[in-house]
Amino acid sequence: MKNTAEMMLSLFEPDVRDEVVERYGEEFADRGGGMMLYGPPGCGKTLVSEAIAYEAKHNTDIEDSYGEVVFLEVRGSDVVSKYSGESEKNVRAAFEQAHEAAGDGFAVLFFDEVETLIPDRSDDIQRHERALTNAFLQEMNDVEDNLLVIGATNMPFSIDPAATRRFPIQQFIPQPDAAVMSEVWRTSLGRISEELGEEAIAELGEASVGYTPAEIADRILGSELQRELIESVIDGDAITPDKEYLMEKLEESEPKTVRQYVSSTMKQASELEGYPEMKRYLEEQAQQIREENATSANAAATSDGAAGEEGSAASGSDTEAE
């Protein structure tokens, strides 16, 4: 995640950008004011955006060059209104707030669910949706060097092409690997992670590959676990959430988010041509799901066959006894 953030920020560092311009020309140093993060839901696009803001503030020359770095987050669903003209006003207000926050410094404006704000105008959409896309594009035209706009989406293919061009820096965010999942456990568990130790955290990270960070943080380590721990304290028999306990919680669940996403998105495979990395990922995931389903079906058939043989053997024994 840190490497992704560093790479995506590189063109906002004056020294890096100047060298790219000198070696390859202005067209290869175009930032366009925007970055797009796309991929399955719950896989850390928000975390990457926060990491980008953190890197801009602490580990690059951006704050030295521009001034204080500020991070602002806006959910698309909070912007869209059922009242005519309100959505466009909300978009303008979000950008105005970002410009004010940037001031003499640098601001990162993060739009989650950005596809709701810039739907494809070539599709059969309502007039107010078209007006919303136009308003967003107008605001993107006025983005200055000290404002970085990041859009996150699960469905990049549903975004207006003109809007996509406003996000020249694009990054696919797939399911995290074991190292990232270990960090999810470490962050979500807080002090408990220190008691578990790095080896246990690494094993939990390895075991949870295939899940999304949101599934671990919200479903497995969410309110239900909190309630269980609190009740154990009240009952005078406090649970010790060791590795075995957490592994058991993991086994009681199963990863669903990516499976559902792959199933729904593969139906729109023809629209993925502009996103080869995402298309390849979805095809690999679909193949893996088919193989897992086939393995499960074979295991079930074997189990049923064994049960049938045992039943036949028992019936034969009863007949002989008679």
TrEMBL record:
Taxonomic lineage of the native organism: Archaea, Methanobacteriati, Methanobacteriota, Stenosarchaea group, Halobacteria
Pfam family, one: AAA
Low complexity composition bias: residue spans: 294-322
PANTHER family linked to this entry: AAA DOMAIN-CONTAINING (PTHR23074), VACUOLAR PROTEIN SORTING-ASSOCIATED PROTEIN 4A (PTHR23074:SF83)
Family statement: Belongs to the AAA ATPase family.
Top-level taxon of the source organism: Archaea
Record region (Disordered): 287-322
Stored SUPFAM superfamilies: P-loop containing nucleoside triphosphate hydrolases
Name the UniProt record assigns to this protein: ATP-binding protein
Species whose genome carries this gene: Halobaculum halobium
Keyword field contains Oxidoreductase: no
Positions of the AAA+ ATPase domain: 31-177
GO molecular function, one term: ATP binding
